[in-house]
Structures are given as structure tokens and as C-alpha cells.
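MODEL INPUT / OUTPUT PAIR
PAIR INDEX: 1
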Amino acid sequence: MKSPSINKRKQAQSPVKPSRTRRKNARIARKPAPFQGKVSRLDELLRQIALIPPGAELPDLLKVYETVLASANRSGPRYVGGRGKSALIPDAISTEDALAKALELCLQGLDDLAEYIRSRSQDDERPPGAPWFWYMFIREASEKLRNVVQGRPVPGITVDPDGIIRAERDYFAEAVDEIDSTLLRVCARWDCQRIFFAKQGKSKYDTEKCRHVVANRLLRFLEKEGFSAGVNLTKKDKARKATLIREWKEQHGVPET
């Protein structure tokens, strides 16, 4: 007969199996919330688009590529320009070299975007075409997202009656699928204009910094018009101040808060 001490040691060594309910609850707890996952993909997409400076338009890579090839076939010195600069094209140029030269021209003056494409292409372990893929994707995604925000049609993208985006499956579509389109907005600060996801719901600005910048500009404008902060106003002055604020916001495209 085995001693009680041996039985106790065996019980201590053998793990206790959790009940079926506890195992099910543990699996549920490990699963991320689906909405949070979609927002994280959208956050990544917005970070990529934010690498494009406000007001900048990315050149069409394929058109620049065609220009590079055409320049290579001409006699005499061959130059192709982009963003105020020009580059000499060699006599004989391969398709891959022409694409690399076209991408270089498209990224002139866009250091942050160029660095992101370089690092992302290395991390992805993609074929040599990865830099061109990321440039064309970010350019196309920026145009698509701006069209969605402004209510313009986008191929493969629809918005249902509740404002939820429905999209065909691709890299862009997976980032925005089932996202509430009313929460995708353009920053109200006119020299920012970044597209952002308004997690707070009522937010009109990309960051708190942008909100403060616009508020300070409005205060400076009112001070020039003779309205200093903390000064008691007559009913007539209050009406004039409200009119000035409304006109100033309309002029700069600042939404009412």
C-alpha cells in the first residue's frame, strides 16, 4: 500500500485541469475586440497617409517612369525633372533602373515618406518591387480616403445608410471596412488638413495641438478687432463679436463647436 505522503506528492505534481467553462472564458478573453482591431489597421493607414505633407500631391509613378524611358531613347543629353529639380538619364537604362529613377524623382522633397518606404521595403522581405508598391499604395490610399471623407464615389467602396463603409477585399479595404465614415474627418486647422479617425466622436481636429493653434489664432484676430479677453461687453458688442467669429470661421473653414 502506498504511503499518504507519496499520494500527496503526485497530486501536487499533476496540474489541475480547468473546467470547460473556464477554458472557454480564457479563449474569449484572449480574442481582441473586433472593432479595436479594425481601428488599429486604420491607424496604420492614417499614419502612412500622414507622411504626405499637407497640400502636396504625389506624382503618378507610372507617368514619371514613362518619361524616364522616353528620355533615355532621345539623342543628346537627357534630363527629366520633378519638384523643381532635374536628373540626367543614362543612354541605356533597364526597366528596373527606370522605375528606381522614377521613384527617386517622385520622392524628391518627401524625406519622411522616402524613409518609411525604404524601411518598410526592407522589413517586408518583398521582391525588389516593394518600394514601388508602397509608393503607389500610399498615393492611391490617400486619394481614396479623401474621396470617402468628401462623399465622392470610390470604386469597390460603398457607404451603407448607417454611414458604415463596406469595401471589397484588398489592403486598403481591410483597413476601412466597417469603419464609421462619419468619424473619418479632415483636420479643421487649414494648414494641417490631415485625415484622422475621431475616436472622441465630436473632435474636429487631428490633435489637441491643432485645436489650440486655431483657438489662439481666433483670439489674436479678436484682439486686433478690439476684443480683449476678460473684458465685459455690451449687448451690441457681444453681437458684433459673434458676427466676427462666425465670419472668421467661415473664411477659414473652421466648423462650429
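PAIR INDEX: 2
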Amino acid sequence: MSRFKLTQTIEYFLNKDKRVITKTIGTEDALDSEKQNIPVLSHLYVGDINYAQNYTIYDVQLSITDAIVENNNLDDNKWLGNDNREEVFNNISNIIKHFIGKFRIEPEGGEVFLIGEPNATPIFDFETVNRFAGYEVNISLGVPELNMNLCQDF
């Protein structure tokens, strides 16, 4: 039951951010970069699970990316803006800060709470036609198990 609560809360917070267009959840910790015309893309992967006394801790990996668009005025100087890579990283960083902030502002938002400090790493996908960039954030989220009974005898 707590995994449903976790994924529904994450989906709820992502749906509140109108900048995130497509949301996917998968059993693999890899973003499907072959998707077409669906920026801004978020992909949720729920990894390891730790069972505490009255709550479950989920290690969650959330990838948020957007497509890199080339400027027609090619130049060797990236600071002149040959593509929108810096804008993409700035936008995705703001989306992630907003997403994490929701768990801090509404710590009981859907009864899911943040544990520790999240860590984000950049994503570069220049191999596929879509050319995505963004961040992958690793967070630990706790979900109370209100109906959990930890009896020693069964």
C-alpha cells in the first residue's frame, strides 16, 4: 500500500507543475531517450526499500529532461547560444527545486516525507535524435505504515 501512496504523491506533485508535460514510471533506472516530442519528460524509478519501525523508506530516482534545440546560427562560442542547453539545465533545476520544496513545505503531503538531502547529477544524451539534457535526482522518501503491526509472534 505504501508504494502506491509514494507514486501517487510524486505524480500529484509533478502534475501540479505545468512545466512537466510527460510523466513515466518504470522498472528500469534508465530514461527512454527515444521518446518523440514529449518534453519536458520525467521518469520515476523506485529502487531500494528499507523497512523502519513504523514507516518504509524508498530510494527514488527521478529523471527530468528536455530536448536540446540547435540554433540555426552556428558558432564555435557556446556562450553565444548555439543551443538551449543552459536554459534546459536552468529550467530542470528549478523544476527539481520546486518538486523537493513541496516535500519540505508539505512534509505530510500525502503522508510522504523527505529523508536527508537529495542529490542531483546532470544527464546528457547526445547519442539519440532527441538530444536530451536535464538532471537525475536521487531522493529518499519515507511513507508511514499506519496499519503496520510488528508483532513477534505470528
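PAIR 2 NOTE: The helical segments are 2-16, 85-105.
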